[in-house]
Amino acid sequence: MLYLCATPIGNLEDMTFRAIRILREVNLIAAEDTRRTRKLLTHFEIHTPLIRFDENCKATVAEKILQRLMAGESVAIVSDAGLPAISDPGADLVRLAIDAGITVCPIPGANAALSALICSGLDTTKFLFAGFAPKTKKNRREFLQKLSTIEATIIFYEAPHRLKNFLEELLEVFGDRQIVLARELTKLHEEFLRGKISELKNLDEPRGEFVVVVEGNKISAQIEENPLDFYKKLLEQGIDKKSAMREAAKKFNISRREIYNSILREDV
User: Looking only at Cα atoms, what is the longest distance across the chain?
Assistant: First the structure.
């Protein structure tokens, strides 16, 4: 059995009774950061053997873990915090285990993305978890442009030293939408900052890991009569002209030149 075991995202009281029992019973625990996980295990008096499983060693270690699973042993995967296999190498091991016919079992618990979403005040009926944006500016821009027309609430993770640049680019591509910045969730300095992107993008000395919850695109495709109307409404949302032209051309399957000519005719 391969267990996907949630761990606290800050407050140790969020560790479940079931998670403690499973981590004590399995033959092996695979962790991203063994030093961090060892502190957690020590706190709960768990003495199960620990193995490092991160991006740098996942190929070789995954094979060893798979062999033990095939031999009838049970293994638990834990992330540094929250649910494993979300934005971490645990997802690769899950796929390998499923392909090998190993039973995979979730041990639910704390999760930063959903904790931020339910306290955001934004729409929770439809949402998309986008994780961390790419590190390079070009890839990040393309990444955000693909998400800019989605009507569901979008959830990002971001590190404090990259937050300001990320919000600047978010404003350029998405327009000035409602967002919520959630930081230090479940910890002593837990905080939710709510407002427009333009109001929060210059946050002084951001500290702690952030969850960024962004309002979805409110422009409904059903009410758009023509490409130029769509382009105009994108501009009203605060999206720059170049991006608006690209999105209008994509939506109506026409060239950007056609959009541009229509703009010139109406002098938009």
Answer: 73
Query: For the segment 159-180, what is each residue's pLDDT rounded down to a tens digit?
Result: 999 999 999 999 999 999 999 9
Contact between 7 and 78 under an 8 Å Cβ cutoff? The reply is yes
User: Would you identify the CATH topology of the domain 2-110?
Assistant: Cobalt-precorrin-4 Transmethylase; domain 1 (3.40.1010)
- Rounded to 5 degrees, φ, ψ at 149 are -100, 0
* pLDDT tens column, 188-215: 999 999 999 999 998 887 788 899 999 9
Q: Is 174 exposed, middle or buried (0-12, 13-18, 19+ CB in 10 A)?
A: buried
- Per DSSP bridges, beta strands 75-78 and 127-132 are unpaired
> How buried is residue 35: exposed, middle or buried, by Cβ count under 10 Å (0-12/13-18/19+)?
exposed
Q: Is the pTM of this model over 0.90?
A: no
Distance set, CA 8 to CA 16, 175, 228 (Å): 9, 34, 49
Q: Which residues pair with 78 in a beta bridge?
A: 31
